[in-house]
């Protein structure tokens, strides 16, 4: 997309840009720019504050989540304060943040809406994404909530912002567990200051985004690596018996790995990875949860961590090529 095309959506002549590095992200409340139509000065200040952090923003529909313009939001997203002023001086747009160019990985802790999603137990639905992620942190000996920039969403969920720390992570849904989604390269989130109806996205913790913890990055990379593209597109099955079977299988396979004797440990781990990889590929178990459980069982059995990780990846990748379509049936 050329600069000339972008200029076509710029409605106002903006004041001269300040020298780079001269703007204090926390001192933007005194910004005064001419507003037109129904523009909201609060949204303008919020968008400028986010851009001052170096985050690339773009307009979303007023009161909604969808991008406002027909052009690609990925091409439009910018940290240029002049462009931000021009957009938000025109209309009360909600604010989108493009995660990739902003150097962000955002963990979206969601809550179930209406009917419980298929494949999720009543307990998981009640805990929501927050409960799922808190348990994951506990298993890894990490505090929850982490001290990082975080936002309360209108639905009752939460966005945890992390600084991307090497490696390319893509969007995913459920890879870390039920109701836990990832917004990264190729994704965006609706930012604080935006509103849906009468409810706003509000900052819970204004701390700078902490680097994405290595253990989370490893789970995301390992989980994505074990799932072929065709398997990742499989829908979560809605049969309660499928989920019950998968959870029972997870418990039994990890027990076998943890109690395996020397000389049989690696083979037992590989077989468990294959069986659970079939269930994960069918959407009956979160891949990251399988990896965590098997790695923990392998440590208990006395297998070296590096060897265990390689065996888990290999077994799950093989199982994912033959996903189970229903509980217990190949």
Number of domains: 3
Q: Count the strands? A: 12
For the CA atoms, what is the radius of gyration?
23 Å
Helix content: 40-55%
Envelope shape: elongated
Low-pLDDT runs = 1-34, 115-120, 224-241, 326-330
Tell me the number of helical segments per DSSP (H or I, 4 or more residues long): 12
Tell me, rounded to a whole number, the average pLDDT. 79
Summing up helix and strand content along with how strands pair, one would put the structural category as alpha+beta
Cα distance, first to last residue? 48 Å
Proportion of beta-strand residues: 5-15%
Q: Could you give a short account of the major beta sheet?
A: 7 strands, mixed
From N to C, what is the helix and strand string? HHEHHEHEHEEEEEEEEEHHHHHH
Walkthrough of the structure:
Strands 3, 4, 5, 6, 7, 11 and 12 form a 7-stranded mixed sheet that branches. The chain has a 3-stranded antiparallel sheet with strand order 1-2-8. A two-stranded antiparallel ribbon has the order 9-10. Residues 1-34, 115-120, 224-241 and 326-330 have low confidence and may be disordered. Helix 2 (41-52) runs antiparallel to helix 4 (81-88), helix 9 (240-258) packs parallel to helix 11 (287-301) and helix 10 crosses helix 12. The termini are far apart. A hairpin with a 6-residue loop joins strand 6 (172-173) and strand 7 (180-183). It has 12 helices and 12 strands. The protein has helices at residues 3-7, 41-52, 73-76, 81-88, 99-102, 122-139, 214-226, 229-232, 240-258, 265-281, 287-301, 305-320, and strands at residues 56-60, 94-98, 104-109, 150-152, 158-163, 172-173, 180-183, 188-190, 195-196, 199-200, 202-205, 210-211. It is elongated and about 70 Å long. It folds into 3 domains: 3-101, no CATH class; 104-183, no CATH class; 220-320, no CATH class. By secondary structure, it is an alpha+beta fold.
